[in-house]
Specification:
With 157 residues, this protein is mainly β. 4% of the residues lie in helices and 54% in strands. Strands 1, 2, 3, 4, 5, 6, 7, 8, 9, 10, 11 and 12 form a twelve-stranded antiparallel sheet that branches. The protein is globular, with a radius of gyration of 19 Å. The chain starts with 11 loop residues before the first strand and ends in a 9-residue tail after the last helix.
Length: 157
């Protein structure tokens, strides 16, 4: 008997098509304008492969491919990073979202951009923590730079 999953149950996935559901291989492939939402983050991509748990009700991990966009949502405003990459791997057991393939992350008035293809950025959606592995460059928004400058001295008359 088919039962629908309540919309507030955690993860919600929409796509143009769910092209391959292979229960034996324990995976489901979603293609075309894929969106995955959860209380912790929103993710969009061209393709999403969900690797199911043994119980077929949970999942071990989800692989997003092609034009990946991520927005952390369940954290304080100063930790709501937005990221883009070619691929992403979400592992619920570890609570990590790994961005690979030229990742770029914006937040807190800064932009981190991979300086080489092998650079990896790991986001922790529950806490908003971010770890970078490999070469990357960081740009700081002019407005923040200006705010960080001491006030100009006014001449005494």
């Amino acid at each position: 008997m088919f039962q629908t999953v309540p919309s507030d149950s955690g993860f919600h996935i929409t796509a143009d098509e769910a092209t391959k559901m292979d229960i034996q291989a324990e995976r489901v492939v979603f293609n075309g304008k894929v969106k995955m939402t959860s209380p912790q983050f929103h993710l969009s991509a061209t393709q999403l492969i969900v690797h199911l748990g043994k119980d077929k009700k949970s999942f071990k991990f989800a692989e997003a491919k092609g034009e990946v966009n991520v927005q952390l949502t369940g954290v304080p405003d100063d930790k709501k990073y937005r990221g883009q990459s070619n691929t992403a791997l979400y592992t619920p057991a570890q609570g990590t979202l790994l961005l690979t393939g030229w990742p770029k992350v914006q937040g807190q008035g800064q932009e981190l951009i991979a300086a080489e293809q092998g650079t990896k950025v790991t986001l922790f959606p529950k806490t908003g923590k971010m770890i970078t592995e490999g070469r990357a460059q960081t740009r700081i928004a002019r407005q923040l730079m200006a705010e960080g400058m001491p006030p100009k001295a006014t001449p005494v008359q």
